[in-house]
Amino acid sequence: MVLSAPSEVQGALRATSSSFLAKSVLICEGKTEIGFIRGIDLFRTEVRGKESIDAAGVSLLDCDGGSETRPFERAKAFQALGYRVAIFIDNDRPVPAVEAKTFVENGGELFHWSEGQSIEDAIICSATGSVILAILEAAERVNPEDLELLDSKIKSASGGKLDFEDAKSLADLDRLLPEQKVWIAKAAGGKKGWFKDIGRMEYLAREVIGPQFKDFDVPFKTVVQSIISWAIK
Fold first, then answer.
1. Is 48 helix (H, G, I), strand (E, B) or coil?
2. Is 10 buried (19+), middle (13-18) or exposed (0-12) by CB count in 10 A?
3. Which tens digits make up the pLDDT trace of 169-219?
4. What DSSP element (H or E) covers 94?
5. Can you count the helices (H) and strands (E) in the chain?
6. Can you tell me the mean pLDDT for 16-20?
7. In angstroms, rounded to a whole number, what is the distance separating the alpha carbons of residues 109 and 70?
8. What CA dihedral angle connects 213, 214, 220 and 225, to 10 degrees?
9. What is the rounded average pLDDT of the residues 106-122?
10. How far apart are CA 13 and CA 77, in angstroms?
11. Which residue has the higher pLDDT, 199 or 17?
């Protein structure tokens, strides 16, 4: 059987051909989100013995950042061909209301963090001190040649009010203020972020977030659980 795609989706077909073998497609904003889902899924399968999202027929699609509308443009291509589609994006930029409404009305599922949050904001600002300490230590392990950069980014994000070692000490005592968590999240993010690729975020999700999932707040856990529930449905 040959599927015919309308002309406006040809670019998506060429860029994402591997996803067309799947039953469902989870369109991710970028590599960080893909690493996050992979890591959570690895923890589920390797530690909890659950079925993987891959076995459930779900393909993860990288939108590689870009404009706010790009994930919805990619989703439109798959929806036009009858695929079950979800989108997983940050919420630190306005979600395009018209595109989101159309996507959902066409049967899509939209997952994002609380208003104003990037994935780093969502992870760090929702976590307890012990989890943040584990995140900081993981940042050191996956960035062994950039330890000075880790420190300088926290100092820059905080206007010199916090450094990396002080952040670890306060996290260990569970005495980080909400404002300090925001500084750490800002330092962790950006183009040269601590976990800003598939491998490093996968490691963080597999080794820290999954094992300590109970120590995150309810809004964070709700988003993650909703994505996994959709994937294995």
1. coil
2. exposed
3. 999 999 999 999 999 999 999 888 999 999 999 999 999 999 999 999 999
4. none
5. 11, 4
6. 62
7. 16
8. 70
9. 97
10. 8
11. 199
Residue with tokens 């404002």: 179
Give residue 7's pLDDT band: very low, low, confident or very high (50, 70, 90). Answer: very low
Angle between helices 218-232 and 31-46 (to 10 degrees): 80
**Is residue 65 left, alpha or beta, with left meaning phi > 0 and alpha meaning psi from -120 to 50?**
left
Which residues in 168-194 are b (16+ Cβ under 10 Å) and which e?
A: bebbeeeebeeebbbbbbbbbbeeebb
Contact of 68 with 231, CB cutoff 8 Å: no
Contacting residues for 219 by C-beta, under 8 A, at least 6 apart: 113, 114, 126
